[in-house]
Fold this sequence. Notes:
This protein is mainly β. Helix content is 5%, strand content 46%.
Amino acid sequence: MTQSLTHYVHTFQEAPLAETFSCLLVVKSQDQERRRARMLKHADKQPFGRVEQRPIEDGLLVSCSLGPRGLTIIDTKTFPEPRHIVRFHTGFLLTLVDRVVQLSPKGVVEREYRDPHFAFLHTIALHPDGERMLVVSSGYDAILELSLKTGKRTWEWFAWDNGFNPSADGVYLASTPERARHYEREGHKALYVDPAHYGPLGIVTAKRTAHPNAARYNPYTPGTLLVAMAHKGEIYELRLPEGDKHLRCALHPMAHGLIPHKGGWLVTDTTRGVAILFGNGFAERERIILTGLPKDPALGEREWVQQVLPLSSHRYLCLDANRGLHVIDTEQRTRATLLPDPSWCIQDALVLGGE
């Protein structure tokens, strides 16, 4: 087996960016310090996440530039817990806590997409035909596909109906009353999760059975989807009607990303401070390790690298909750660190181009 190539970012030479490029930062909330303190307090708790409901946080879509002088803010717009952004026509699609919004190039909301099972939304992926989008509804352990034209659901997948049961407290969750009765006939304690009885966050995080946080159409095997299950750090291939396939790749809880890159998949192992490039069969090819970079000593070994996003075949933007933003070059072995507002909990970014 070919040995994986490992990049230790702390050994890279610190160098300011030579160029300036425009960027959109998706800030899911403005309470990063409180989140960090909570992470330290509950770091060893399994499963990850809250056990009670909380208020919806105000997040931001930040238009900025990254360059030799650091991070320069151009404009900010407030949204309820945005998490992921993709290009769409001349503008963008952005997930908010319980809806997807279509934005103009200047960030003005032009259309909203809603669904009864939209809650705690994470990623969006555009279908190759340009007519559908795949939305991860973490609040209901669901992957939903919608028509971009009509806004209607064209396909659905609930983790509860596909082997991800019971919850941590032994309850079998069900997306329909019929499914709940089926579980009860099998002798299980069951709960029909009626979205009418829940808010924009859906089920509390700790009681979800899978907590999907990324789903992508598979460009290497048309007709399949890949889904990251955050509770256990697992990745699944959904191939209907043949069934689901567990792709074992040694991740940890709360992994993020699942981005097609260099003929494979770039996944951020968030709680280990590592990004891994897998081949399309999920054999490891490269590893980017951020753990050696300086941070607050009070954090100890705790890591939270939200995302590592490819800028090119060898340049990456790393969203590190404990250290800031890093632009790294694995060929030149350089890194530039930029410090955003310390209250920002940055979930995603979209680089728009150089200036």
